[in-house]
Amino acid sequence: MRKLNTIVLFTFFFIIQSCDTKTKQGKQTTKNIPEDQESNTKSSFTNKLKIPMPTHEIVDEFYEAIFANDNTKVREMLETKFPANYEPNNKISPLGAVIGTSDNLYLARLLVEGGANINGKENPPVVCCSEYGRLEILKYLVERNADIKNNEAFNKAGFHQFYECGKFLLLNGANQEKGDIRGKLWFFEQAVTKSDYDVLHALLLTEDELNNNNCDGETALIIAIKQNNIQMVSYLI
Question: Can you say where the ANK repeats lie in this chain (predicted)?
Answer without folding.
Answer: 216-237
